[in-house]
Amino acid sequence: FYQQLQSSYKDVEDFLQKLNDESICKKPPTVGNQKADHVDFTKNEIDKTFSRTEYCRACPWCGVQKKSNGGNGWEPKSDTTCAKRNKKEYYPEKTTTIEILTGDKTKGDMVKKYNKFCNGNGGNGAPGTANGGAPGEKGDQMEKWQCYYDENRNKHASDSSGDSNICVLQKDKQNTEEENDRSYNSFFWKWVTEMLIDSIDWRKELKRCTNNQLTKCNNNKCNNDCKCYEKWVKQKEKEWKQIVDYFKTQPGFEIFSNNYNYALKALLNVEDILTNIKDGYKEVKGAEHIYQMLQKEKSQEAAVAGTGQKNTIDLLIEHELDEADLCLDTHLEDEDCSDDEEDHEEEVYVNNPCATPSGSRHRALANEAAHQMHEAAKTQLAIRAGRRTLKANASQGHYNGKGNVENLNGHICNIDKNHSNATGSSNDPCHGKDGGQVRVRMKIGTPWTNIVENPTLYKDDFLPPRRQHMCTSNLEHLNRNSKGLTGANASDSLLGDVLLSAKSEAKFIIDKYKGGNSPAAFQDDATICRAVRYSFADLGDIIRGRDMWDLDSGSKKMEGHLKKIFENIKNNHPAIKGNPKYKGDESKKPAYKLLRSDWWEANRHQVWKAMKCALKGEKINCGATPYDDYIPQRLRWMTEWSEWFCKMQKKEYEDLARDCGECKKNADLCIKDTRNCQKCDKQCKTYGDKIKQWEQQWDRMQVPYLILYKQAQNTAASDLPSLYGDLKNQYVIDFFKELQKTIKNSASKRSKRSTDAITTDPTTPYSSAAGYIHQEMGPNVGCNTQTRFCGESHKDYAFRHQPHDHDTACKCKENKPQPKSDVCTIVKNLLQGNDGKTQIAACYGKSHKEWFCNNGDVESIHIGACMPPRRKSLCIYNLTQPNETNTKENLRDAFIKCAAIETHFLWHKYKENDDKIEDLLKEGTIPEEFKRIMFYTFGDYRDLCLDTDISSKANKSTGVGKVKINIDAFFQKHGAKNVQERKMFWELNGPKIWEAMLCALSYDTKERNFKKEVHTKLNKNPEYTYSTVKFSDNKTTLDEFAKRPQFLRWFTEWSDEFCTERKKKEKKVSEDCKTDYDGCEKNKSGSCANACKAYNQYITNKKEEYDSQKGKFD
């Protein structure tokens, strides 16, 4: 469908234009006498396209009035003419001038809406004045308002208070009736509401630039859009200050003890405004940042009494400025970037083998949950300090190495070991790492071990070698008494060492993965980027005091340094000192928990950029700042563990396949005490031992996962903290809560049959550690053959002690040499004395000619297939006898006997009317037509062995049904058919079965004895050797031909016979009618008529058979 669609509509615009051409889109939708705009999908006017009708829109700001044309009904009052137009006189000392930025309301795009302002045609520092021209597209987008308050002056008749409290728009004709004015109350709330609406629209429009899941590296556009956004925020900040200044000129604040801030804060109820916006304007999708800020603000006020000096709009503006700052930092004008990143959110779905039901499709949501955790952290930062406050600048730091800080300004990639406050050679972050000379980091097979210094506490935690040898030497050996870390610029100096560690770590990873000795699978960008992200996130946990590996000597030193440095930042940072939001932060666990979390959030993007510095030379694109640092370390390490387990398992599988290759190919060559078996058996034990070591770790990791996930479910409703285990587990529980919310939200968009409907729904794959692994790493996780992390009895279970396709090879010591049996001796004894007509072991000579196209002859899924008469009477007696199929040797001999008897009867039928054919065989040549019959027969026996035979097996007590039961019983293993063993059996014995067929051809039915000379000629002819004999096309070998689907072989056989028989009947017509076909019309009786009748009947019957098979083929 998609390919055909592309032929006419190669891009989305063509397709949308086609939608526009539909009559339903051309005609504006109407409700009564109200109508909305017609639909045009090709224009960037989403709000207009999906707007309500005029009737359903929110009430006008200034109310309604009777229609001015004298007609019935009402019309809205202009929102700039709320107050009466009397000539007004104001006292300058009681007048406040407020300049308001107004967007072009004809534009839905925020950048276009404020295009003139952002490009300098109005606003701060722009040419043009605020009081010149009309607002909007004809002017400079700035409106000058003057707000005036006076008690009992110029009161309006409609104003019962007697106070004059209005705002007037200053236009060309001031202090006249043509001047526009409105009450201050209307002016105030209109500004607040429109500011909130614009904030929501900005967030939605800039989502492609600020959401790391969507970010496309289009720096110039995003940079320009972010600049426009920043200008808008700063202008709104200025306007709000002017509005608040005027607010303070009014009386009546005595009840608030003249505390204007408290009064304003009490007045603002943003939640109610958001509800009104949702009801009257648009869906408030995109207002999540405002809601989160309100909730966090409430919780902060409750926790820190007397800190609420800033009102909601103050906080929102600060939050917007932080977001604009982050947007600009993310999209620098001069930064190179790849065009490979997508600008749309790609929802990843996984067919998860550990979900319920197994293999069901679910969306990968851990990253989305981490994104929500990150948004919450940004909100916390905005409320407590602000991103711009805590954003450090490494170029402002002071370093023992006396590195030139000027070259860091805007160029963090220049950072090196000279920009460090570490002591001695530890200014190289990788100094002393990677196990000395052993080099164990990033090496397949390096064990993940418990943290040996405290194995009891860390009994369920296994440390990645990557983390154990992470490049943090400079952070472990900081001179915290240095000038750089004790002064007011300690935050900047600390950032320098963090960036140095990050850059060095990323370079170390790349050098390891790109090294000449690394496997090819290590060198793909996705693998490298995953490792870099893991280290980025671990560095974030170290800074925030969340690192699980915190009891070794190096980590203890690092934590001690960080506590002291953040103590200094809290006490001496000019913008943090005295901040009540961090009161008591030193007593939290970890110490300075809030400040450390906020500092990391404010600077994490710089840390990621430093890591990307190491990637530039390799042209590796790892994308925008990831959210891995908001996925708990326990879960990240578990995911990383699965990745390295699969690397190990894949390597061990390759070694196993190498040493057991001969055993898999030919079991007869792999028996006890043979070299092949000894080599294979040793490698099987090695594989099993390695898998067992990792399996024990996996078993121990699953337990805390299940407990913590359940804990999150149990506490989600009450939102209470958990008390399970170490305090660091609370981060996991909090993440699981967010993940469960995300699952629930995602489920509401999906069908009920494929939904993770509620957080306790067992169908969600995230309810188990195995499900989590597959959901985040994919169905195979990178493992080879054994790919499932659940289902211990499943053949694909990852921790199976031997791969299922090596079951037979790994049991080679149980194999004993098979008693040698001469195939031709078996055949000779079997056929001795037979004339080609007398039955042998309940198998009979060939008499059927008709093809069988009845539905009952084949399985229901193969209806339409026609069974050859040869196959209908196929000799299978020995295969129906349980005592002849109960051992490997017996089953082999049963196939040999059946194939020999079948060939014996087929040959007798084939040659009975032509003695010359017998002479041809005596010369050592098999007629090509009969060789084809032998190919078809051989293939049918293979299908019986591999259970790929399509004939009906409804009768289990006899015939093919009984054969299936016997062969299944022999190969039965672990409750399922062992397909691999069946194939191995056939590969081993197929040549012997072919040999039996050649032996049967060497039996003379007239003399009733075995002709050794004939067999010798056939056996020596390379054209009939099993490995080289070919079908009549002289290309397809016997083994290849037998693997073709049975239906296709039968269809080919049918066409062979049809072409042969039709020629015979045409020849008969020609002989009896003397001419080709005219005789059939002229002669109504006699031999000609009979020949014609026979020909026509044959063609009619064959046409029905052909249609039946064609229907199935199609």
UniProtKB/TrEMBL annotation:
Pfam families: Duffy_binding, PFEMP. GO terms for cellular component: membrane. One of its GO terms (molecular function) is host cell surface receptor binding. InterPro entries: DBL, Duffy-ag-bd_sf, Duffy-antigen-binding. Signal peptide: none annotated. SUPFAM superfamilies: Duffy binding domain-like (SSF140924). Gene3D superfamilies: 1.20.58.830, Duffy-antigen binding domain. Residues 462-636, 864-1023 form the Duffy-antigen binding domain. It comes from the Eukaryota. Residues 187-334 form the Duffy-binding-like domain. This is Uncharacterized protein. It comes from Plasmodium falciparum Santa Lucia.
